[in-house]
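Deliverable D4.2, example record:
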Amino acid sequence: MSAALVPRELLSWSLTAITLGALEGGLLGVIVKNQYSHVASPLLINFAVAIVAGAPSFANLSSFIVAPLAQGRDKIVLLARLMLLMGVCLALMAIPGRSGFGLILFTMLAVIARSAWAGILTIRAAVWRANYHRHWRGRVTARIVQVASLLVALVSALIGFLMDWNGAAWRIVFPLAGLSSVAAFYVFRQSRVRRHRQLLQAERAELSLRKSTFSLKAMRAVVRENRDFRNYMIGMMIFGGGNLMVIAMLVVLMNDQFTLPRLSQVLITSSLPLLVLCGSIAYWARLLDRHHIFTYRAIHSWNFVSAHAVFAIAAIARMPELLWLGSLLLGSAYAGGHLGWNLGHNDFSDDANSSLYMAIHVSLTGLRGLVMPIVGVACMQYLESIQPGYGAYAMLIPFVLCLLGTCWFVYLHFDRERQG
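Output generated by the structure prediction step:
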């Protein structure tokens, strides 16, 4: 039954990937920076860039709403409806004009669309846990992510190319990409979850036991009682904080200091990393299937450290050509990051409370995504106000945070080895 589910999953997630190609944080940042630059001060525009670039992450705060709704309810119906909401929001994003109100409306719709996707990720994790066994879940996920990432990369690159030809071309593509998610809604409604009835019964029993499974009290209880998961979340807060601020900072850097063409900006921040992801994700999937998430992160996280080191050197030495190398390294890091982010919490949870663990994980990701891109851009703006050119040194912040988080994962790996 699991094998039979894969083709429909591939088709539905491929269709949503076309929509996600238009909702990539790097692409949305480039659109805001280039299309709305005249409607507000440069500082406000840069903060708007930070918001839309961070939206894929801070929208995960919506899990506080979605996770309780999913507990004990039909997973397929909820997932399909969220796909529909995401597609409608993307189509509406093409309507706002080039004004202050248009910028606000564009930003709000982007956040709602990404919140719908965050809800999809929260529920999808429980579905994949039910449908696919631990020792080949990573490979199935890799196959789906590989195809989806390729489509996201191609769509975002196409929009970047069209924007180089005509700055407003995205207004034509966005409604078409939104229709793709509507099509995914119709396809996914026919999907299934293995042992769905038993899963719902287990969730309802867990809900009855805890009274309010997704309350802050229940989440705090999990973090307090599960030492390994708590340590994992600490590492992700430090390590992920650096990763989530870098895209917004790159968009500002490439516009204000390097003045790169729009297509180059989209390729560096979105398309090229996702293309590399497609070629490298199979390796990371095999590694994840063989090892605990602590060991996996202790190996994989050095890819992010390398990417951020190259970005920092490129910014400080004023060598924009190095941004392409950093983008390639970032793609390999993204490949492993996607798998670890979607599946890592399963090493600490069971079937009944898997959604709760994922909700905690994505909520903390949302908190990082809300704060860190703005912090990164603010630091860049502050240093630039002291002396023109100093803003480039802010690129050292994501590098240092990522290095500290990686060292923490290495410590957790050896600590787990010592405990046998």
